[in-house]
Amino acid sequence: MLHKVELPYTRFLSPDGQLLGELPAWADDFNLLTRLYRQMVLTRLFDQKAVALQRTGRIGTYAPTLGQEAIGVAVGSVMHADDVLVPYYRDTAVQLMRGVRMEEILLYWGGDERGSDFAEPAVAEDFPICVPIATQALHACGVASAFKIRGEHRVAVTTCGDGATSKGDFLEALNVAGAWQLPVVFVVNNNQWAISVPRRIQCGAPTLAQKAIGAGFHGEQVDGNDLLAVYDRVQAALERARHGKGPVLLECLSYRLGDHTTADDATRYRPAEEVRHAWLEEPVKRLQRFMVGQGVWDEGREQALISECQDRVQRAVDNFEAAGIQAPESILDHVYATWPDALAEQRDWLLERAARRAGGPGHE
Ligand SMILES: Cc1ncc(C[n+]2csc(CCOP(=O)(O)OP(=O)(O)O)c2C)c(N)n1
Ligand SMILES: [Mg+2]
């Protein structure tokens, strides 16, 4: 007999920004809500700019955050500065909120190692973006083990997509997190698609949050397009993990409104009607409607914010372009502490080839 697992699901705002029941006490702070809303708008405008830079050949590939801003902004704002983020590639919102600079994010996607060397002291220990699916979940458990062994009240927060939860690495990470009761929080960005594979055929369980139950710890779902709900549940999850009460898996239900990356064309596999419907649920408009309804936001403020954000994004693009191009061998700089002899030949080949190229087309 199939045992049905009942898990909490949290939502405070309807898609049109109406309050459904009681507002959590912390949300009376409209300065905080305004700050988070501003950050969602900044993230969205930066995201648009990053896609435009890829289209004009100034960065390589980019994975848009469009539609998932509430999750990242909430996670980034609830985390303490000395917590450690172990992110995946669709984490522009969290990284910006944590203090990673916009130009650093552009450098990363431009193939430049300096993009993972964060200048801001508060994020110095955060991990770089992880592209191999779900491997970062195990790294986060390693970080959380260190916190536990040292008796520090810090939390490792790792993010991933819905598809990543099918990977062995993810399930192994849940297992060790539960077995050792580690201070780690798994934030699953369930955006309904793993490239062209829809959520319903990725796994047989009705929720992804219930994978935590098999590992012996708490899992729950939240409306990932409702900033108030995500903030509230991330806060509870981090408190729990920080105070030795074990890990949490938070499944945030959202939708990837953009292409998987700039190398993808989602119109080839997604019904237009589904995407149109998802736009009605999106997080930025939802919080904006709520704030307008509360009398704390209006069109004038919105226009001023957009132009301020556009200026900030443009300054970041200017800094990115002024950074210049790194030497080709920089891709090897941070792979090994000591370069293995067995790879010396490949390194020499790369250096030689780069030198020939620098000599001009006739030398190639
Ligand atoms: C180990 C590994 N296998 C395959 C890939 C190719 N790949 C890149 S993204 C992706 C889908 C991931 O989907 P999901 O976890 O839902 O995250 P999303 O991109 O939707 O945010 C795959 C299979 C990879 N990057 N790493
Ligand atoms: Mg996905």
From TrEMBL:
Organism (species): Pseudomonas arsenicoxydans
Residues of the Dehydrogenase E1 component domain: 37-328
Pfam families for this protein: E1_dh
Functional summary from the UniProt entry: The pyruvate dehydrogenase complex catalyzes the overall conversion of pyruvate to acetyl-CoA and CO(2). It contains multiple copies of three enzymatic components: pyruvate dehydrogenase (E1), dihydrolipoamide acetyltransferase (E2) and lipoamide dehydrogenase (E3).
Keywords: Oxidoreductase, Pyruvate, Thiamine pyrophosphate
Molecular function as annotated in GO: pyruvate dehydrogenase (acetyl-transferring) activity
Top-rank EC class of the record's enzyme: oxidoreductase
Name used for this protein in its record: Pyruvate dehydrogenase E1 component subunit alpha
Required co-factors: thiamine diphosphate
Catalytic activity: N(6)-[(R)-lipoyl]-L-lysyl-[protein] + pyruvate + H(+) = N(6)-[(R)-S(8)-acetyldihydrolipoyl]-L-lysyl-[protein] + CO2
Single GO biological process annotation from the record: branched-chain amino acid catabolic process
Xref: InterPro entries: Alpha-ketoacid_DH_E1_comp (IPR050771), DH_E1 (IPR001017), PdhA/BkdA (IPR017596), THDP-binding (IPR029061)
E.C. number(s) listed in UniProt: 1.2.4.1
Gene name of the record: pdhA
Cell inner membrane among keywords: no
Subunit organization: Heterodimer of an alpha and a beta chain.
Gene3D superfamilies the record matches: 3.40.50.970
